[in-house]
Amino acid sequence: MLAAMQRSGAAWTRTLLLQLLLAGPGGCLSRQELFPFGPGQGDLELKAGDDHVSPALELKRALRFFDRSDIDSVYVTTNGIIATSEPPAKESYPGFFPPTFGVVAPFLADLDTTDGLGKVYYREDLSPSVTQLAAECVQRGFPEVSFQPSSAVVVTWESVAPYQGPSKDPDQEGKRNTFQAVLASSDSSSYAIFLYPEDGLQFYTTFSKKDEKQVPAVVAFSQGVQGLLWKSEGAYNIFANDRESLGNLAKSSNSGQQGIWVFEIGSPATASGVVPSDVSLGLDDGAEYDDEDYELVTHLDLDDLSTTPFPYEARRRGDPGTHSAPRVLSPRRLPTERLPGPPTERTRSFQPPAETFPQQHAQVIDVDEVEETGVVFSYNTDSRQTCAHNRHQCSVHAECRDFATGFCCSCAAGYTGNGRQCVAEGSPQRVNGKVKGRIFVGNDPVPIVFENTDLHSYVVMNHGRSYTAISTIPETVGYSLLPLAPVGGIIGWMFAVEQDGFKNGFSITGGEFTRQAEVTFVGYPGKLVIKQQFSGIDEHGHLTINTELEGHVPHIPFGSSVHIEPYTELYHYSRGVITSSSTREYTVMEPEQDGAAPSKIYTYQWRQTITFQECAHDTSQPALPNTQQLSVDSVFVLYNQEEKILRYALSNSIGPVREGSPDALQNPCYIGTHGCDTNAACRPGPGVQFTCECSIGFRGDGRTCSEMEKTRCQLEREHILGAAGLTHPQRPGLFVPECDEHGHYVPTQCHGSTGQCWCVDRDGRELEGTRTRPGMRPPCLSTVAPPIHHGPSVPTAVIPLPPGTHLLFAQTGKIERLPLEGSTMQKTEAKTLLHAPDKVIIGLAFDCVDKMVYWTDISEPSIGRASLHGGEPTTIIRQDLGSPEGIALDHLGRNIFWTDSHLDRIEVAKLDGTQRRVLFETDLVNPRGIVTDSVRGNLYWTDWNRDSPKIETSYMDGTNRRVLVQDDLGLPNGLTFDAYSSQLCWVDAGTNRVECLKPGQSGRRKVLEGLQYPFAVTSYGKHLYYTDWKTNSVVAVDLAISKETDTFHPHKQTRLYGITTALSQCPQGHNYCSVNNGGCTHLCLATPGSRTCRCPDNTLGVDCIERK
């Protein structure tokens, strides 16, 4: 029977995946969003080992389970289950399912915590903060239920390992799982909440002691054996038991929050089975659908589902106790319905379609149900989360503040947003994205399909007016989409003019949210579903959006025009969710026929739900009004048949619900009569008074604002767009350069059609050897320092370094220090060493003799240094430099070496910048990282030339040059040489690896793979420390175990560049230049076992003697 049950359960999980793929909510669950756990929360800890069972956890509040209401103790096991009675010894390990005892199994598998391989924590928690969090989870999944738990059993399996048996699986080495189960109980019911954080499930199978092979884990509930004299197998429900369904636990949900699954486990409704959460789009169970609906389901190889009978079903709330005639459930319902239980006494048949839709990330919530309850689950962080470790979650234009329960971000003065995303007030905004659609027009049985269509929007913020263009829309559907102005109107809501005390969408969400809208055309069968995912601001400063249209629209004749009257819409706000619904009219004016242009008025109904994350820790902020009114006027819609472009334009303001025209609406800032420049913010005052203030980056009196200067990049961009007759780069094959917020060329330029990217200099010229293949971005450096904002000046003198060993790393405009205790980063002690706001510091090197730090600056360009004992920095080289990047130091020979990627050469000089000499100026394209082996007299450097990346070496005098590594390189950036182990290591942003080798020995070692975007690296002891461009962090890697052990996010979240180790004392050793400059008159350059005396370039040589 078990085998049959498992086969049918596996088939059922594929049914579940229909929901997972199209209804999956956006935003993965982070580990910080788990219920608080650990010894600090009063947790008990299960004994480490394999197949352990905890002592009975006596409950102060009884747990309800299936038809029982008297469970007063539970047992926690290593193997991912909570038992309602003590498990027999013979059933202590997985393999017997269903077991004889009651089980809640968030991840039943043979797990192992031996020798510190993870921990298992558990407790019963009666605190209001935890029970309220549980209530929010449950009510998100069961919005029709009023549930106020008085207790919660919280069990956490943290970083547990798989039991591997006698023959260890190398693929599971180092894999760890973290997940959580919460059993919340009130006087009348109990619910289970399973939480699977992002990257929390790293393995799905474990070695079975019973079957002696790898078997998949099981997510399930079991009632256990029932009866005293006549025993019988109780009810049980399996919700996941194969790799496909297990892999989607962290990616999807049945409750509207990714990674969170909710089940009703104890109430009158669960006597014969657990009830899954029910979150749907509100489609009626008995709704009729035509044959076209079958084409909307995602194809998942459902051959085994066509007529599979299922032996049992987890019942739904309100289902009768028995089922009679089987029915066919429309596949259209499945992507958005709640997690269905495996059905009993029913047969579901499916017609697999021919097309495949990728997984979407829209959170699907029934609008009516949210409006009724007003309670949803939103992200929360526990009290351990502070700004010290999470500043990177805030915008660079925001402040991070700690509160009693966590941290919050808030935009700085002159900026608007939610703190995670901020833009300059009054500044025009751009929104870019893609649109895909599958739309039935009129009675046509064949849908119009389009994919990868561009959407571009431009917003004049101080007027709340948005202009949206969607390109390459087929004319067969273009005119029929004209009434759908709110597709672009959501952008207008984001940047609507705010009346005093009210907030537009960007102020609330920061442009990070999911929108699900449903459009019903009155008198026309079918409806249209709009799914939009807004992903915040990209690296170009543009908001990003993905849109999907699916369903039916009435046919509008070719050549028609559509007119939409001004309208208002009420937005209802609750925690993490915004809903609205309205009925609107539009007029279709058909092309003139026989001297007359017929027109007709139509009506459609809109319902939409917006889900987003908010920070609830700052209780001092005024509460957002429960209802706000969006006023939309000057609506313009147009379809250009020749260009196949759909255009929407709307003006928007957000304020109170009103009848008539209250005085507040007369302020010119609200009604758009202020006359401020389009690059200015309108500041309302009392009555009708107001002021205009130019946006950041502009100057003037507010009525007229001009950019600080017209840059070359902006002029080139305008010229190309003007010649093409465009306002935005839409034409395929057309390259338009990207400018940053200050008008300079973005250092990495990409072609939208080919997908290739390359680096440019400050004048926009492509740098040789930097062009990458599609999908890879080269590690380009900006040569322009950011503008200095007027305000309190910062001291440029070095703040003396305390004793000990420190990491020094560069950010734009400063150098930071991060103390090391042993190999551990003392993150709370990190401080700025040197402020240099007018520089872009790239490379760093440290002189352990004089305690000096040296750097390269590509903005001036120059090379500078400063003493760690304090004092002002000095520039030692500022002439004849192009783009100095990597820098290295020979502390024994008292020389510096650097790479110049613009001049394509490597140079050497004395520590004071004198006696410069070019070592190499041939066969170099993009030289970057450089290090020395002072004792042996060797030099190593990287060249990330896209045509032939390589790592080279030579003696310090430039002789014996040779290629050290050339195969299997991508974008080799930084490298480091450890004098103690004589090991050379490098980081590669193309292969995303850390690798090491010992020069002179064959073979190289792949230390770690899967890095994000490493830039520079340094070594200390058995650890490497590298800077990462993707995460803006310093990452520690333990070479002994090939594992990342810690990450540090600086307070200022800008790009990190070079990193070096400031040693407390120099490594032992000497070379032939250590004493008396090796007897040389000028440059002494060490070689293995000797030295070479060289003269500087451009020296007549009368007083310089070269010799070996």
TrEMBL record:
Domain NIDO, by residue range, is 106-268
Asked if S-adenosyl-L-methionine is a keyword of the record, the answer is no
Q: Domain (Nidogen G2 beta-barrel): give its ranges.
A: 427-664
Q: Where is the EGF-like domain?
A: 665-706
**Source organism lineage?**
Eukaryota, Metazoa, Chordata, Craniata, Vertebrata
Q: Which InterPro entries match?
A: 6-blade_b-propeller_TolB-like, Cueball_EGF_LRP_Nidogen, EGF, EGF-type_Asp/Asn_hydroxyl_site, G2_nidogen/fibulin_G2F, GFP, Growth_fac_rcpt_cys_sf, LDLR_classB_rpt
Q: Please identify the protein, giving its name as recorded.
A: Nidogen 1
Q: What is one Gene Ontology biological process annotated in the Swiss-Prot or TrEMBL record?
A: canonical Wnt signaling pathway
